[in-house]
Specification:
Layout: E1 13-17, E2 21-23, H1 37-47, E3 53-59, E4 65-73, H2 75-86, E5 95-100, H3 109-118, H4 125-137
Parallel strand pairs: 2-4, 3-5
Antiparallel strand pairs: 1-5, 3-4
Length: 142
């Protein structure tokens, strides 16, 4: 007997005002590596936010939603946005694109944070070289 494929349910996305977002302690990234938050902020200022933040509603002690959302995945992007707000280049109420996970999901927030950081694939050095050449020289290298 053939197994039926399990249906996939995606989390909804929505814009959430920046001032309703807070960093989560569930974010697994603790050590700074790679591009700085300042560089990321400049990149976001230049081209916009390319990847949504992954958030979960913050719950009160009674289980009700507080109106705030914690960010277990996308902490560096949030820190870069915070820097832009501090520099008054971005309003505190700017809507930020977010993927909203269920606060009571069986998947832990730490699991989301780890998956976002582990599932990405870095560019092959040759692909990076080709992209750099195209940006700098306007040349496409086959």
């Amino acid at each position: 007997m053939a197994k039926s494929a399990q249906k996939v349910t995606l989390s909804p996305s929505r814009d959430i005002p920046f001032d309703k977002l807070v960093l989560s302690q569930a974010n697994v990234r603790r050590i700074k590596a790679g591009i700085s938050v300042e560089e990321l902020a400049e990149d976001i200022a230049r081209r916009g936010l390319l990847q949504s933040l992954s958030v979960r509603p913050v719950l009160a002690d009674d289980g009700s939603e507080t109106g705030k959302f914690e960010i277990p995945a996308g902490g560096r992007r949030f820190q870069a946005l915070s820097l832009l707000v501090k520099q008054k280049r971005l309003a505190k109420t700017t809507p930020i694109p977010c993927i909203v996970r269920d606060a009571n999901s069986a998947i832990l927030a730490e699991d989301d944070s780890l998956a976002e950081n582990m599932q990405r694939a870095a560019l092959h050095p040759l692909d990076q070289f080709r992209g750099d050449c195209q940006l700098v020289c306007g040349a496409v290298i086959g």
